[in-house]
Amino acid sequence: MEVTRDHLGLTLPLFLFLLLSPGALVTGVSDLLNEGNNITDGNTLVSADGSFILGFFSPGVSTNRYLVIWFSVSNTTVCWVANRERPVNSTAGVLVFSDTGNLLLLDGSGQTVWTSNSTTRAAPGVAQLLESGNLVIREQAGHTTVWQSFDYLSDTLLPGMKMGKNRWTGSEWYLSSWRSADDPSPAYRFVTEANGLPDNTLWDGSTKVYRTGPWNGLRFSGTTEDATYTDMFKFVVTINDGEVTFGYTATPGTPPSRIVATSTGFVKRLVWEESRKRWETFLQGPRDVCDAYAMCGPFGLCNANAPSTSFCSCPRGFTPAFPAEWDLRENSGGCRRSAALDCAQGNEGASTSSTDGFMVLQGVKLPDTFNASVDASTTVEECRARCFANCSCLAYAPADIKVGAVAGCIIWTGNITDLRYVDGGQALYMRLPKSELVIIFHTYMSRGNCLVLYYISYGQSLSDATDPAASRRDPASTVGSVPAADPSTMIEATEEFSQAGICVPAVDLPSIKAATDDFSDSNIIGKGGFGVVYKARLNGDIVAVKRLRPSGRTEKGKNDFTREVKVMSRVTHINLVKLVSYCQEEDEWILVYEYMPNKSLSPYIFGENSSPRPSLTWFQRLEIIRGIAIGVEYLHNKEVIHRDLKLPNILLDHELKPKIADFGTAKLFIDDQTNPTLVQTPGYIAPEYAREGNLTLKCDVYSFGVVLLEIVSGKKITSAKTFLLDAWRYWNKGKIKALLDSQVAEPNHQLSLDLSRVIQIGLLCVQPMPNDRPTMPEVVVMLTDSSSWLARPKKHEVGPGQATGYPQTSNYSLAHCLCLEQR
Ligand SMILES: *[C@@H]1O[C@H](CO)[C@@H](O)[C@H](O)[C@H]1NC(C)=O
Ligand SMILES: *[C@@H]1O[C@H](CO)[C@@H](O)[C@H](O)[C@H]1NC(C)=O
Ligand SMILES: *[C@@H]1O[C@H](CO)[C@@H](O)[C@H](O)[C@H]1NC(C)=O
Ligand SMILES: *[C@@H]1O[C@H](CO)[C@@H](O)[C@H](O)[C@H]1NC(C)=O
Ligand SMILES: *[C@@H]1O[C@H](CO)[C@@H](O)[C@H](O)[C@H]1NC(C)=O
Ligand SMILES: *[C@@H]1O[C@H](CO)[C@@H](O)[C@H](O)[C@H]1NC(C)=O
Ligand SMILES: *[C@@H]1O[C@H](CO)[C@@H](O)[C@H](O)[C@H]1NC(C)=O
Ligand SMILES: *[C@@H]1O[C@H](CO)[C@@H](O)[C@H](O)[C@H]1NC(C)=O
Ligand SMILES: *[C@@H]1O[C@H](CO)[C@@H](O)[C@H](O)[C@H]1NC(C)=O
Ligand SMILES: *[C@@H]1O[C@H](CO)[C@@H](O)[C@H](O)[C@H]1NC(C)=O
Q1: Fold of the 495-594 domain
Q2: Which protein residues are within 6 Å of ligand 10, measured from CB?
Q3: CB of 229 within 8 A of CB of 238?
Q4: pLDDT digit string (tens) for 477-519?
Q5: Cα of 367 to ligand 6 centre, how many Å?
Q6: What is the 3-state secondary structure (H, E, C) of 172-196?
Q7: Domain Protein kinase, which positions (predicted)?
Q8: What is the position in ligand 4's atom list of the atom closest to the CA of 116?
Q9: Whose CA is nearest to atom 5 of ligand 1?
């Protein structure tokens, strides 16, 4: 690049410059400054492509002169300042070469106010402003660079720069903000923390004020908006014995961009918007009250969406350390354990016996890892075992959530600091004593003949359970990106707890009868092989009451019912229809679900005429697909195989968020062999399940793939025997349009790319061999991270009877299928 620079001759900005400043002809008229020449105030260097300019500048209202590099698109946007702390007070400043080949900035009196400090001499040397915005000193003849401005960061990180630490020499590169708009001397520091996992941290003097959260292999744990621009910028995070650094590169063609630490104590990622001639903010931190470092003190948990000012709470098993202050919103004292851990300690904290368990906090920005120990080479299972076996371990989490990564292990032994809920956050596993885990299992004595089961609250505290708003808590989406993770606390029980039924409250039959007008036909909203569904009002809430058919009420059915209630109450997620209650009295077996006003997805996808079909945009469709994937992933995490994923089983809430329904229920109750097709919906079943009854999580992946392709195409899988083969063929030829529902407005270019990618994911899911299909967690990452790598789906054959995903017949006995596989 450097070689050709001289031949480029007059670039446009340079040409203009010559016209406007004829006096400048002698010096500074290119991107090069040779030894012996100088740059005086009013003259500039311009990078070969015209994007960066080096010259003298006065910030804001100041009359001081600084030698700076600015963006040519915006002559007030300075990205580098040489003499930050020693301004020149007149226009007599001049940039010259010293006898040692360094650049010197001299003021009017000939005093050096700034120098490049290279100890190596390039002879003869030349200074050049590169197209990246980097000012380098190199040999005139060769390519050896002896000094570069990219090693001396100001407040701005450009693509190609990096910040972090050299572990050998201890030297550090960090951003430091200007003191004010008029004064470029350094104030806030933005540092890539090298202890624990890399974490970009903003400091005001010696006080930490904000963290982006640790690097998790995909992004920084607390800044999930990163996922929305992975097509423009790629993170470059290096962690090895020699260095811990962070930087980024921009995809060619991306407009000018920068990360800047501002004089007001923010870190922003800005991208130039040419049509409006301004910088658009892609990310800003701290973004809300919970981003203030250690807002809720040690072990405190911050929720930015909590009502009014009560952002801080204590995780389960903890109470405020100073309740009086806490009540007055003075939360810095944090939380302390309600009961001590039970861990008998041998040498160095090795536990000889422990009855402790782990509670998982979903959807959080991982706490400060400064004092945590990180091991990138272990699995999560090993991590858990390691934490359990060491009494000093208070919490653990995987270190790398990238698909295909070993996961790794972060172990916290000290205070858990700066913990908050965040949209699209991660899981943190906190150690709790058995007694605290047991409190969660409030014994619930049911009335009538209803089973004695247990009750669990899903909010942050027990009182939350009665507050319907708590279960709907859904951190405000930042950049309509990653669908919100359900931030509810959930229990991950240790072995002994998995025996205990975690359950929902029972309700008595008279209440159900009253709610449904004694099962009045006028309240029926659905019918199926399992029984009838009624709309009802129970305790003021509108619910769906599912009354099971008498033929299902056998001894085996009773076991299934009990297990079903347990399974259903164990799974609670924003993308699953929630079981609210149940009743088993007299001869009635009844399940009560939350009511979904917008019913099933089917009419939105397949509807004819005046249906809502055309109004469901591509964007909404993609969001729905992601929501379904996240719901199924959650089920799989809980060892539940849905087995009957299909469009009619996807319901929509008032915000058109998808909720998976009917998991387990229908299947478990249909014990009669006369109507097996009820459970085996043609087209949706994985071929190996239809053929040989091989039931694995991959069966759901297959059905999910079919659902995905249906949502995109608006066609039923059963509409053509060659549905999947056609999809594969069109996709393979790049004829995406032929695959898209023509009733929906044609997607723009970016959406077409997204849709093509989503179709590819769908095709991967419906591959004939289960082992070829991705797992649901992999599918979720593929759908959320548009930069993740996708394999080529294998071709679909249309053979006799199978492989279209459309089996002919099968009489596999469904009674063998359990929805719950114990670990
Ligand atoms: C800068 O260059 C001009 C023209 O070559 C020369 O007259 C002047 O003395 C130089 N200034 C310094 C400070 O070297
Ligand atoms: C920046 O550009 C604008 C518009 O081209 C011009 O009016 C202004 O004087 C320039 N400012 C500086 C400091 O060069
Ligand atoms: C500029 O600075 C020089 C020395 O640094 C000083 O002698 C001179 O008085 C200053 N001029 C003004 C206008 O402040
Ligand atoms: C050059 O070295 C001096 C003395 O070691 C130091 O004060 C100054 O900050 C250095 N300048 C740069 C640009 O590194
Ligand atoms: C327990 O964990 C701490 C902190 O990681 C470590 O220093 C100690 O060696 C561990 N003890 C054992 C027995 O592994
Ligand atoms: C790390 O440990 C030191 C020493 O115990 C403590 O002062 C510091 O606050 C800890 N930092 C964090 C982030 O927990
Ligand atoms: C943990 O927090 C408590 C309460 O703020 C403090 O007294 C203690 O020093 C902290 N421990 C560490 C290791 O930072
Ligand atoms: C979804 O249901 C709500 C409440 O019944 C209704 O107001 C809304 O129009 C429905 N949305 C669509 C897209 O049908
Ligand atoms: C189904 O299971 C049987 C027995 O475990 C196995 O031999 C067969 O390969 C499996 N089929 C598929 C398609 O995985
Ligand atoms: C149905 O079951 C019978 C008896 O178990 C078996 O012979 C037959 O092959 C099965 N049919 C199919 C399509 O699997």
Answers
A1: Phosphorylase Kinase; domain 1 (3.30.200)
A2: 809-811
A3: no
A4: 222 222 222 223 333 322 222 223 434 677 788 888 889 999 9
A5: 12
A6: EECEEEEEECCEEEEEEEEEEECCC
A7: 519-790
A8: 13
A9: 37
Please identify, by atom number, the ligand 7 atom nearest to the C-alpha of residue 332: 5
pTM (2 d.p.): 0.59
The CATH class for the domain spanning 32-195+209-283 reads mainly beta
**Protein residue with its CA nearest to atom 1 in ligand 5:** 390
Q: How far is CA 347 from the centre of its chain?
A: 39
**Helical packing angle, 749-765 and 776-784, nearest 10°:** 170
Q: How far is the CA of 89 from the centre of ligand 3 (A)?
A: 6
737 is in an annotated binding site: no
Nearest residue to 372 (alpha-carbon basis) of 359, 385, 362, 383 = 383
Cα–Cα dist 239/167, whole Å: 10
- Contact yes or no for 819/667 (Cβ under 8 A): yes
117 lines ligand 4 (CB under 6 A): yes
State the CATH class of domain 301-343+355-445. Answer: alpha beta
Looking at all shown ligands, the one closest to residue 83's CA atom is 4
- pLDDT tens figures, 580-631: 888 877 778 888 888 888 878 988 999 887 778 888 889 889 999 999 999 9
Active site residues: 644
Ligand 8 centre to CA of 740 (Å) is 24
Give the model confidence (pLDDT) of 177-230 as tens digits: 999 999 999 999 999 999 999 999 999 999 999 999 999 988 899 998 777 777
Q: If you classify domain 601-784 with CATH, what class do you get?
A: mainly alpha
